[in-house]
Amino acid sequence: xxxxxxxxGQSGGPTAVINSSAAGLLNxxxxxxxxxxxxxxxxxxxxxxxxxLFDIGQEDPEELRLLTQTPSSIFGSCRHKLAxxxxxxxxxxxxxxxxxxxxxxxxxxNGGNDTMDTCHKISQFMQRKGxxxxxxxIPKTIDNDLCGTDHCPGFGSAAKYVASSxxxxxxDSQVYNYPQIIIVEVMGRHAGWLxxxxxxxxxxxxxxxxxxxxxxxxxxxxxxxxxxxVHEKKGDVMxxxxxxxxxxxxxxxxxxxxxSELKTDAFGHKQLGGAADTxxxxxxxKFSIKVRAIEFSLLQRCAAHIASPVDVNEAYxxxxxxxxxxxxxxxxxxVGFKRVSNEPYKIEIIRVPLGVCxxxxxxxxxxxxxxxxxxxxxxxxxxxxxxxxxxxIRSEEDGLPHFADLKKILVV
Amino acid sequence: xxxxxxxxGQSGGPTAVINSSAAGLLNxxxxxxxxxxxxxxxxxxxxxxxxxLFDIGQEDPEELRLLTQTPSSIFGSCRHKLAxxxxxxxxxxxxxxxxxxxxxxxxxxNGGNDTMDTCHKISQFMQRKGxxxxxxxIPKTIDNDLCGTDHCPGFGSAAKYVASSxxxxxxDSQVYNYPQIIIVEVMGRHAGWLxxxxxxxxxxxxxxxxxxxxxxxxxxxxxxxxxxxVHEKKGDVMxxxxxxxxxxxxxxxxxxxxxSELKTDAFGHKQLGGAADTxxxxxxxKFSIKVRAIEFSLLQRCAAHIASPVDVNEAYxxxxxxxxxxxxxxxxxxVGFKRVSNEPYKIEIIRVPLGVCxxxxxxxxxxxxxxxxxxxxxxxxxxxxxxxxxxxIRSEEDGLPHFADLKKILVV
Lengths: 412, 412
What we know:
The first copy, chain A, is α/β, with parallel strands linked by helices. Helices cover 34% and strands 18% of the residues of chain A. The first copy, chain A, starts with a strand and ends in an 11-residue tail after the last strand. At the A-B interface, helix 6, helix 8, helix 10, strand 9 and helix 11 of A face helix 6, helix 8, helix 10, strand 9 and helix 11 of B.
């Protein structure tokens, strides 16, 4: 038994369920006789460096319960990357100092690839210094691009939002008696999992005709041919484009204009708009029909009101099980999901060595993308459908989301 | 008793609940012994002119029930405006011909201001020609700008979407340890009701600091002063801007650039982006902090997954009661809502003469906007909260929306 205190931190871009993992971990830790005090760092590792820790033991249990329906990162996030400690160990020494000051023996860090890298480095450094501390990564990312796990908490909810919103927009776009081209941009700078989720809408008969993923090289000429072929056949065209699509020269779509001196907006700045806006301009030039660009923007990662209950529960279990494993003596791992069966859907929570998942990116399998590189195949549907099942019944207040309201009392 | 057939049409921009009004009307009409056949026109009045009517009697009742959770306009919409029949009665004569051909004695048209104008003209023309036909308008608009009714079906659901999404985006925008400016654009070309709904998020502690409505003249200089004041006080700034805001010269925000020759995008076209993008560019130039523009776009009017049950039920009742009134012998009216009491919330369904509501626009009362013209006051909150209560429990299929699938069999 390693007695002592625990600190939890959140890192990277928020999701609809990262706070559910927090709730799973923190509730289990509060109930554990082995853990003396339960803390959460403000803005992840930055909060540890700044000695800004919140005392979770002073929070109202009901508010902690509400974390399961509160999107975003309640304790604040960061994008701080630690140096290699062989080159510069100053921040590691500061972390060690804070860990010693607060007798931190359990460190949990919730995030994506970069976060697992940070975890791994801290774990190695603590071992080198002979400071006993169990270091555990908890995955989260709407991008679903972490290695060593079947899928990531956050992805199912974002996929449910994307697929449902595509279906609704599709119906909306079909009401008039003239054809329209709708281009929707979905997040995912390096992997196409979330953009691919739009195929679930197509599977239900109300989704995109064309889906472009960062896994394949984007060509404006091929895009034009694809759109023309669908338009000639069906009139309406609905397109999903990942923000991460790049051409053979590695340029993102907004950088593909031939006329780059015009790439400024009304105030002389480089355009804020992304891939969908650029493609819409291109299509407008080539086709004389109505074109609309839509960006799901932050909504796709923070829409807790349509979170997948499967995802919320798995995120909670990931946090809870992360503690259990660490109390069992394990360290230097990330919790991950292993899919034991698909029908009925069943997972096991496993330990993945941090070295396996740090800094690596898992992209969509080649064979799940069609040959033309403009659509997604059935195996992806089989993979994703179990992750979006059910409806979240939230407790509302005044007909609006009821979010957790934490006191966030600093540890002195 | 006026025996005969009934035709229903949908017009204008879709909403999350216009099909719920269709369900209310069509189910009641199918059950009525006075109505022989129940039809729906494809693309509203255009479908009548083209003799494209669907036979609702051949639809599966379960699919008609699903209309209450199916957004957009299931029968297709149009933006066709009829001429003044004193100048050109050719289309009216065609409508009369179709009405006679199918023995249409009940005509229901579901839409906004323009739709009520069309209704009124058809009603007058039929009277002039001595053709007995009861003509009824059913209101719908997310803009909530119809006169003669306390509020419009469609508004409550859009307001719930806007307020909830603001709350979620607010949480998302606060996670990092640096300030951000978020500018969100909301629909409403002439009236600010929907943009004003963002104040419900502020009421719950997670909404915009500044709200700009078309009811007040927009000034870029004042906007800059407002943003600076909030930024200096709080760091983060969240802004809601209505797409309908205009300056003293009647220019919309995207037209307010000093540098209009740059108002082209990467492909040399006039920018697609709207008010939020333009303001974001402006703010980026003036403040050296992170700025993000978000447009809710079509999502705000078609997001049936977060429809307000109050709105869904009122839309249904509007359709159902429209039939009842017409069977009672009334014609040339729009159904409207009269708020009898606010606590508890209670409405009555009333008849509004079509002449009262055709082509008029109801804007937000002056006294519901603050003096500075950049925020919304409590009476608006009292007015809107009852309209967004509750959570819609939809029947899902595969974890995704289950929309009505109609056969749409043409009447020959």
